[in-house]
Amino acid sequence: MEKNQNNVPSPHPLFALSKEIEQQGLVVIDEVTQLPVYDEPFVSPYLVLVLNHSGDSHGELDMQPFEFHAHDLAVIYPNHLLLAKDSSEDYCVTLVVVSNSFYKEMQQRITYGKSQIFQSQVQFHLSDEQFQCFSDALRFLKSASTLNIKSRKEILADVMDIFSLMADESWQESNKVLSTSSAKRHKSSRSYFSRFYESLVNHYHESREVRYYAQQLCLSPKYFGSIIIQETGISAGEWIARFVVMRAKAFLRHRPDLTIQQICHELGFSDAAAFSRYFKTNAGITPKEYRDQVLN
User: Which residues of 196-223 are buried (b: 16+ CB within 10 A; e: fewer)?
Assistant: First the structure.
């Protein structure tokens, strides 16, 4: 991890660009050649599209092994846990980073895309022709993102709509090798977890109870728990605890401008004492001890 002159860990590049991302709504970053490697997962608050031009990288997404190769396209949704481990010397990607507010606007406008496919299969490989099409689309998107006109966001949303359609069609083309039955199994095997994770991302600050998320899926807590363990090997309760702790760690590490009291409210805890107890139970140390540790 890089540190500045005061020996304080540098913030994750996406946090360092947070002001620009929020102001612009969408930012295209070309020729990214290094992964920001941390000793724990990073929780991105943004929608991030990644087109891999060359090289390989390895890591974990939502605590599951993740590999990213040349000519792969990845769509990483907000608030997922990403742990980068290493990348090859020839690694080079283009990032499209979308702010939360603009992402919500896009969701209202995008008509073609079936983006839920990326909740269960984050990345897929592109043919040479598909890769060239996406490269051209990203170049146009970057040009459009620099426009200084009133209709800029409308244009960007239209381009992202087309981009979503291209992604859907490319995904379907790349998965034709799957039999109908195996494709159905893949879709159904992830459906409950995808819905649970989406609910967790949206409601973690409201409830940390397994029963709450079971009700969201109209399942009994016992059956819900058995499905999540079967699909992921991790209990629903542990998913909830890990997610909340990772969100807390992201605030503690990357937002030194926020007090622990402010972070506790961001995470939906009634008071700092309750937050501290929860964090220590699941992380082994208190929030203050963790912040002191990462800053030294």
Answer: bbebbeeebeebbebeebbebbebebee
Distance separating alpha carbons of residues 239 and 136, to the nearest angstrom: 39
Q: What is the CATH number of domain 13-174?
A: 2.60.120.280
pLDDT band at 231 (very low <50, low <70, confident <90, very high): confident
Mean pLDDT of the chain: 82
Residues of the chain with CATH 1.10.10.60: 181-295
Q: What percent of the chain has pLDDT over 70?
A: 83
| Interatomic CA distance for residues 90 and 92, integer angstroms | 6
- Cβ neighbors of 206 (< 8 A, separation 6 or more) are 212, 268
| Range list of H helices, the chain | 13-16, 18-24, 100-109, 117-120, 128-145, 152-174, 180-203, 210-216, 221-232, 236-254, 260-266, 272-283, 287-295
Q: Who has greater pLDDT, 12 or 254?
A: 254
Closest CA to 35 of 2, 84, 71: 84
Longest distance between any two alpha carbons in the chain, whole Å: 57
End-to-end CA distance of the chain: 12
Q: How buried is residue 54: exposed, middle or buried, by Cβ count under 10 Å (0-12/13-18/19+)?
A: middle
**What local confidence, expressed as pLDDT, does residue 12 receive?**
61
CATH superfamily membership of 181-295: Homeodomain-like (1.10.10.60)
Query: What separation in angstroms does the CA of 219 have from each of 84, 93, 231?
Result: 34, 41, 15
| SS3 assignment, position 131 | helix
Helix axes 272-283, 287-295, angle to 10 degrees: 70
pLDDT recorded at residue 171:
73
